[in-house]
Amino acid sequence: MGPDNGSERRLEAAVRGFGVEADGGAGESCDVMLRYSADDPLVVSLTVSWAGRRAEHWVLSRDLLSCGLSGGAGAGDVTVCPVVDPEGPPGVLLRARDARRALHIRIGHQALLLYLARSHALVPFGSEVHPSRIDKGIEGLLAPR
């Protein structure tokens, strides 16, 4: 039996994207690293990197990303929606902002679809939070300090 490094509980995938700063700055190609862990099953982490710039890190709801594949999803600071480019393959536009920055990232629909399918194979939809985890969380909140 080999060492258990937990790699069966994590997914990583690098995809090409196209980022446009929300303030109307020029768009440019970027690399997007998607990370998912069964230990934190409700979210997907994204690291967006451009040549010569500091990488940006974002954490988005896995359900939001899944819903954004087929129609607009989200409100306020984070939205996801499918986009059609008559000159290229279908994509997904992620819009995110926080107090310091705002970003629009377009990635391939197929790449995101396959990645999310793999994440759902790892932790099926609807099974992310078990009652025992909720009970432990409540116990921790109610425990005397």
Description:
The chain has helices at residues 62-67, 109-122, 131-142; strands at residues 10-21, 28-37, 43-49, 56-61, 73-75, 78-83, 91-97, 102-108. The chain is α+β, with helices and mostly antiparallel strands and 145 residues long. The chain has a single domain (11-142), classed as Transcriptional Co-activator pc4, Chain A. The protein has an 8-stranded antiparallel beta sheet with strand order 4-3-2-1-8-7-6-5. The chain is globular and about 55 Å long. The relative contact order is 0.17.
Number of strands: 8
**Regions with pLDDT < 50 over 5+ consecutive residues?**
1-5
Q: What does the radius of gyration come to?
A: 17 Å
Describe the main β-sheet briefly: 8 strands, antiparallel
Instruction: Specify the structural class.
Output: alpha+beta
Subcellular location: Cell septum
Keywords: Cell cycle, Cell division, Septation, Sporulation
Protein name: SsgA family sporulation/cell division regulator
Main location: other
